[in-house]
Amino acid sequence: MNFETVIGLEVHAELATKSKIFCSCPTDFGAPRNSQVCPICLGHPGTLPRLNRKVVEYAVMAGLATGCRIAEFSCMDRKNYFYPDLPKAYQISQDAYPLCLDGGLTVEGDSGGKFIRIERIHIEEDAGKLIHSRDEILADYNRCGIPLIEVVTAPDMRSAAEARAFVSELRTILRCLGVSDCRMQEGGLRCDVNISVRPTGSAKLGERTEIKNLNSFQFIEKAIEYESRRQIDILTAGGTVRRETRRFDEQTGTTHTLREKETAADYRFFPEPDIPPLRLSPADIEALAARLPELPAARRKRYAALGLPAADVHILTEDRALSDYFDRAIAAGKHPRITANLLLSEYLRLSEGESFSCPVAPERLAAVADLAGAGTVNASTAKKLAARLWEGDFDPAETVLREGLGQICDEGVLREGIRSVFSENEGLVAQIRAGKTAAAKALVGKCMGRFGGRAEPRLLNRLVDEALKK
Ligand SMILES: [Zn+2]
């Protein structure tokens, strides 16, 4: 029997606000343990939470960018449970009336573009972090009250690759909006995977398990692959899959029972009495919609129309700082493909840090691309000029003139140089003429060297070919 895997995701992303969701504690990552806490985020009796306006703005922007409808009325609820990372013994979240509803994203699916529905996006507070050591467990409450959005999808994905594609697209969008850094290694983007299997063609969903807290693309894929296999094996052996919450073991790549799955009733959700319902007017939502930048999907379309290869389009739109830089460069020049090529080959690898940064003015890169596009310099000189600009600023066109870096296209000059290279390498020339054609590349390299790398490459190749045939 063939089985189909059915996957739904709950993605938690920390919002990049300066302060927490209900108090003014800072949200910096990596501060000394329990140094960013106050009576509100520790849930001391008698304290009152106040909702951070930025959290709502960011969540609405995330909703708008993922095609959601923004609820004009939503409210916060208490989700009650006891765990040592939650000093209040409840989490303030949204249950019945979430902020964003009914959106979705088109991602690269197993067979072409696929629309993955988003059922809801709600806002909530994060819990603290437990630090397990050999003989004790310590609690760090700095993360208590860090604002989160939880993005809940419909069970629309059918493979690990589709789940990965969804998380990747969501991450690119949230980063492009600037509402979340989505640092997965710091837990800034975490994913719970709901997964079930069913006989292919069956319309009924199988019993599902939930794998908690996956914080890398690799773990998401591995956990899905392992868990899907495990469930198929159980069903094939005539067993039944139990509904439960499971943990992914990063060391072994396997999943293990964590607890029987709670139902919503176990959490005793009720409206949060300390925070009034949230009311947004159409004008509020309009104002936030007007602040949305051009989204990655639109950018991809625009870049593809410039004739850029798909792989370059993908890289350029992953990071907003990089695509903004590229946009400024192509606005200043005439050759977007060469600009993209220089940017990705020369600057991307030199840029340090999480998002692209570059000391070269985009206009300078455009000037180099234009020199190459016009044939004034060849591709390798263009790369050298681009690399030199990283070290310090200069005017590329003027430098090409002053240093004589222009491309050599004069056939007479090229033939002359080739003749002398041939006479210095008679052995090599004889070998190639005798059939060792693989060595021709080395010979062309020697000729290029004769011209300081400045020969027009196609012309040089043709002339060397002609000379070999003589
Ligand atoms: Zn606080």
Give a verbal description of the structure.
By secondary structure, this protein is of the alpha+beta class. The chain has helices at residues 53-65, 160-177, 217-236, 282-289, 296-305, 310-318, 320-332, 336-347, 362-373, 379-391, 396-403, 411-424, 426-433, 440-450, 457-469, and strands at residues 3-14, 69-70, 73-74, 77-80, 90-93, 100-109, 112-125, 129-132, 137-140, 147-153, 189-199, 209-214, 244-249, 254-260, 270-271, 278-279. It has a nine-stranded mixed sheet with strand order 2-6-7-10-1-11-12-13-14. The protein has a three-stranded antiparallel sheet with strand order 5-4-15, with no helix packed on it. Helix 12 (411-424) packs across helix 14 (440-450). The longest helix has 20 residues, at 217-236. The termini are far apart. The structure holds zinc ion. Zinc ion binds next to loops.
Give a nutshell description of this structure:
With 470 residues, the protein is of the alpha+beta class. Helix content is 39%, strand content 21%.
Topology:
Elements: E1 3-14, H1 53-65, E2 69-70, E3 73-74, E4 77-80, E5 90-93, E6 100-109, E7 112-125, E8 129-132, E9 137-140, E10 147-153, H2 160-177, E11 189-199, E12 209-214, H3 217-236, E13 244-249, E14 254-260, E15 270-271, E16 278-279, H4 282-289, H5 296-305, H6 310-318, H7 320-332, H8 336-347, H9 362-373, H10 379-391, H11 396-403, H12 411-424, H13 426-433, H14 440-450, H15 457-469
Parallel strand pairs: 12-13
Antiparallel strand pairs: 1-10, 1-11, 2-6, 3-16, 4-5, 4-15, 6-7, 7-10, 8-9, 11-12, 13-14
Helix pairs in contact: 2-3, 5-6, 7-9, 8-9, 8-10, 9-10, 12-14, 12-15, 14-15
Bound molecules: zinc ion.
